[in-house]
Amino acid sequence: MKRHDEGRRAFLVGTAAGAAATVAFVPQALAQSSPGVAAADSAASGMAMKGNDDVAMAPLADSYGAFFNEADARTMKAFTERLMPGAPDKPGATDADVLNYIDLALSGPYKDHQDFYRRGVAQLNAHCLNAFGKEFANLAPAQQDEAITALEHGKAAEFAWPKAQAFFNTVRTHTMEGMFADPIYGGNKDFAGWRLVGFPGAQMQFTAEDMQSKDAFTREPIVGLQSQLKRKKG
Q1: Is 141 buried (19+), middle (13-18) or exposed (0-12) by CB count in 10 A?
Q2: What single string gives the DSSP state of each residue in 160-173?
Q3: pLDDT tens across 86-132, in order?
Q4: Which of 52, 61, 169, 175 sees the fewest Cβ atoms within 10 Å?
């Protein structure tokens, strides 16, 4: 893995580990009421679900198809993988099925941001065509990183709405949610994100020794909401 990839991974993993140290990482939307699309231009702080009932009713899928078409899915899969690149023994966005998480969210709790994503993906590809002669998914990783950096710093003139930085911040936020939220929301496949940061998830119980230990928690199995639901149905 290149140094650039390692730095990006370290930033996201460090942020997620800090969140997990206080509470289980939960999508930002679960703690807020829906603020509307306009707030997305303020560093993606307005991504909100309408309530836990909507989340519980969202169907789980094995791949995209709830919202994204094939072309947009390829773009978003490549984008999220560059934000959270995988490496040997270190799962990335593709391993954790982040695309599925975003796809399901946009078909349900985040459906008021569908146009935000459609326009964002279109403008991203317009920028890449002008800068590199190819759409984002067809670029080499180094060129994809250049494109993402341009968005991060607001230097992609093709973006009108959403703004380039707003689109970057939103996708990064959703990538983290897809990596580290409970698998019931469609990402964090096989607890890839939790294993990456050493977060045990919901356990049936913790012993006094567990609570006092300063070592990484490794006892199996890791139990999340998805596993609990399967157990109840079985």
Answers
A1: middle
A2: -SS-HHHHHHHHHH
A3: 988 899 999 999 999 999 999 999 999 999 999 999 999 999 999 99
A4: 52
* Residues 6+ positions from 123 with CB-CB distance below 8 Å: 156, 158, 159, 160, 162, 164, 167
d(CA 64, CA 156): 27
pLDDT in tens, 19-53: 544 344 556 554 443 333 333 333 333 333 333 33
In angstroms, rounded to a whole number, what is the distance separating the alpha carbons of residues 75 and 57?
A: 27
For residue 140, the model assigns a pLDDT of 97
Hey, what are 11's tokens?
A: 């930033």
Dist CA 166 CA 81 (whole Å): 19
Of 100, 89, 102, 74, residue with least CA distance to 171: 102
- Is the C-alpha dihedral spanning 116, 121, 122, 123 positive or negative? positive
Q: Alpha helix locations (H) across the chain? A: 3-20, 52-57, 70-83, 98-107, 114-132, 141-152, 164-180, 192-197, 208-212, 225-233
User: Chain-wide mean pLDDT for the chain?
Assistant: 78
Q: Is the peptide bond before 91 cis (omega within 30 degrees of 0)?
A: no
Whole-number percent of the chain with pLDDT over 70: 65
For the segment 61-84, what is each residue's pLDDT rounded down to a tens digit?
A: 445 689 999 999 999 999 999 999
pTM (two decimals): 0.74
To 10 degrees, the CA torsion angle through 95, 82, 76, 31?
Answer: 80
Residue indicated by tokens 């990839």: 5
